[in-house]
Amino acid sequence: MKKILVICGAGVATSTVAINKIKNLLDEHQLAEQVVIDQGSVAELPMRKDDYDLIVSTANIDESSIDTPVVMGLPFLTGIGVEDTVNEIIRKLGF
Amino acid sequence: MMETTVETLTLNNIKTVKDLFDYVGDYLLKRNKVNDSYLKALFEREEQFPTGLKLSGDHNVALPHVDAKYVKVNELLIIRLDEPILVHEMCTNNLISTDLFIFMLIKNKDSQVKTLSTLMEKLGDPKIVDELFNSSNNQQIYQLLEG
Asked: Which of A18, A58, A91, B54 has its CA 20 to 30 A from that of A37?
């Protein structure tokens, strides 16, 4: 089972929007049952980052301080470039 | 979106995000739609987590918002500018140019997520975004944005 942490500024709104999109898209790729998705805020990232295979962020974060692979979640909000981003997620999860 | 109202304003002579936020903060405070900490919170939030979004059509958009505790109403305040200004893009922090702002005033925290996700979905359609920019009929805009 792979684990994704989806974060945004407050860990409430945009991350929820992104999570719903990611779940649907993983489902389309028949991967939904192999991935667990959790939600968090930017402030929680330092404590939680090492527990996940991938971070998807809709806020600007300093990637250099994170060993876990990071994917920018902006396309899930704007709808532009969604397919590329999903493929990036799938690749970085190692499927 | 059920209990949310829509208001639209078209503004001239806005050159920066600060001009815009100062105007909107004053406008909302005078109408008792926000508390007196709203403006400060708005600046802090936008600085830390910018809300600009690059869209596929003619207009980009920004969705400035703050925690529900600063807000007394459920309203989408749509601002059109006669000239675009620069805002920071969510996630990348890049500067993008936009003339359309939707101030999300949401006093009920639980409905914040639903309002935002509905809004995001609608903003993916350039025709709806054009209507937001051009329509003078708030009721029509409300119906366009309704879940």
From this structure: B54
- Give chain A positions within 8 Å (CB) of B112: 12-13
* Number of other CB atoms surrounding residue B15 within 10 Å: 11
Q: Which amino acids of A are annotated catalytic?
A: 8
A59: left (phi over 0), alpha (psi -120 to 50) or beta: beta
- CA distance linking residue B56 with residue B103, whole number of Å: 20
ipTM for the assembly: 0.77
| Interstrand relation of B61-62 and B52-53 (parallel, antiparallel or unpaired) | antiparallel
Q: How many angstroms separate the Cα of A44 from the Cα of each of A19, A41, A95, B41, B62? A: 17, 5, 27, 21, 25
CA nearest to A36, candidates A19, A49, A48: A19
Cα end-to-end distance, chain B, whole Å: 6
Q: How far is B90 from chain A (nearest CA, A)?
A: 6
Please enumerate residues of A whose Cβ is less than 8 A from a Cβ of B: 8-10, 12-14, 16-17, 20, 42, 57-60, 72-74, 77-80
Q: Looking at the DSSP assignment, which residues form a beta bridge with residue B102?
A: B78
Residues in A closer than 8 angstroms to B48, CB to CB, are 9
pLDDT of chain B, 147 residues: tens digit per residue:
457 899 999 999 999 999 999 999 999 999 999 999 999 999 999 999 999 999 988 999 999 999 899 999 999 999 999 999 999 999 889 999 999 999 999 998 778 788 888 888 899 889 999 999 999 899 999 988 876
Q: Which residues of A touch B93 (CB under 8 A)?
A: 60
